[in-house]
Amino acid sequence: MRTSKDRILTTHAGSLSRPANLIALGKSIAIGEAKGDDPAYARLLAASVADVVRKQRELGVDIPDDGEFGKPVAGSYDYGAWWNYAFARMSGFSPAGSAAAAAHETQHKKSGVAEVALTSFANRRDWQKFGEFYLDPESSGSLMGSAARRPVGRPACTAPIKYTGHAALRADIANLKNALAAAGAEEGFMCSIGPGSFARGIDLHYKTEEEFLFAAADAMRDEYKAIVDAGIVLQIDDPSLPDNWDMINPEPPLAEFKKFEQLRIEALNHALRGLPADRIRYHICWGSWHGPHTTDIPLRDIVDLVLSVNAGAYSVEAGNVRHEHEWRVWQDGKLPDGKLLIPGVVSHATNIVEHPQVVADRIVRYAQTVGRDNVIAGTDCGLGGRIHPQIAWAKLQALAEGARLASQELWR
Questions:
Q1: Domain segments of the chain: what residues?
Q2: Which run of H or E residues covers position 368?
């Protein structure tokens, strides 16, 4: 994995704005009207990945990705593509409400907090605390609020889980490698969901929560290993680590919650076993929706869990104003030797484009805390599907300009 040896390198958290024609085809695939192996879709996808990698490099992103374009979206603003894509790459799931799912209902035993709380986004304490805001169709929260009020309809696990997405994954890898070579990029990364974040669906097959988690981990390992073996940096997307806290109502004791999350970390490390840590980045966030976030768990309460993941770099929110102050966590909880930190220095949660000097100041603060060589400038979360494309690209430009200003200060 590249490090900031003579200047601050830049990257981002994964999702980028998709072109309209790709969104249209992807929507047809996401809702089952078209197949993902359509030759026309494959050609459009390859061309779109080449374009997005080229654009990232032109803006000054050092470590680009494929924008997660291989994960079909249900519309221009889609908060769930990073998660939903995995259901299409797994066997063992039945559509929610289907006869297959209903047949398993009577044999299933509830697993308490994990299943009841985490399958209901409307259960969020933040949403209940600010109900007027979230229920107002004209408020800025309606972007996420309206989507959340629709039935989620997550597929239910009704049989053993196995990874079946090898063909789609091979296409994603080939598209990214070809695009990186064409753009002259030294290194690129690809996102894949963590088992703890994936296994928040409905389990009607496995006897215990632990069995469900580790089955998901074993299946996702196929994806993790293929990405690393292809020479691409693997990014594990695992927002559930902090995000689950707000979805458990009432607020649980911290020790109980950390025990709950520790099992998910163990499942992830099981899936990563034997893979080189220096080819893996671990990304967390507190959820992409545009809301108050007053019930987010503090980073200091979970940083030990974050650092227990077998990864070489850790990507955390640092530009979001609910979490910008948490650079202080790294003063006390020192970054382990040989590890990198990817603080998000531009945010997906506001339409305001950060001034490059603000970005530089954030970078310098982290560099002075954990060492300039150990910092890569990133984004809080994926920009695609969260904010308007024109603003998303402006934010990446501000990221690159801020990194240049920070480098001038740090290497003068």
A1: 9-410
A2: helix 356-370
